[in-house]
Amino acid sequence: MSRIGKKPIDIPSGVTVTLSGQEVKVKGPKGELIFRIHQRVKAEQKDGQLLITRLSDIKGDRQLHGLTRSLLANMVIGVTEGYAKKLEVIGVGYRAAMKGKDLELNVGFSHPVLIKPLDGVDLSVEEARKQIFINVVSCDKQKTGEMSAKIRAVYPPEPYKGKGIKYTTEIVRRKAGKTAGSS
Description:
There is one protein chain. By secondary structure, the protein is α+β, with helices and mostly antiparallel strands. It folds into two domains: 9-80, Alpha-Beta Complex (Outer Surface Protein A, domain 3); 83-167, Outer Surface Protein A, domain 3 (Alpha-Beta Complex). It has helices spanning 59-80, 141-154; strands at residues 9-10, 16-20, 23-28, 31-36, 41-46, 49-54, 83-90, 95-99, 102-106, 113-115, 121-128, 131-138, 164-167. The strands form four sheets. A four-stranded antiparallel β-sheet has the order 11-12-7-13, with helices on one face. The chain is elongated, with a radius of gyration of 22 Å.
């Protein structure tokens, strides 16, 4: 049996899980998420826990078993604690600001770049010690990562000067520039 798939998911107080056919709704203080599980996997609720079982032992079913359990566990964590990613804008004259709910980035292009947040994702900008940070917060782990990747893709960090938008946990490996060669 799958090590991950066989672990039960504890449902904390304040979170309601509704099972209707193959659809699972998880509702908590941070929001509501809906997931449609595959027909080869079943979910059942017992004693404040969510149990995931599979129909057979073939490879595809075993893979779906662990995946489904992980996704449902992430949903429960998302509606209770939420997910957040923090990005850092590095570069002289590079700025980030909120325009309503949209994020406006000035990162060395001839024009500002406007990014609209996905549904259910909150963006905010904070400035601390001459550094600019962008916070991406949501109850959906997938949307948090997707929105963060979209923002970073506007100007990924480059290895020579280190300018660009990077995750705060990311380490940019720096390269040496050109040196004067002897002919």
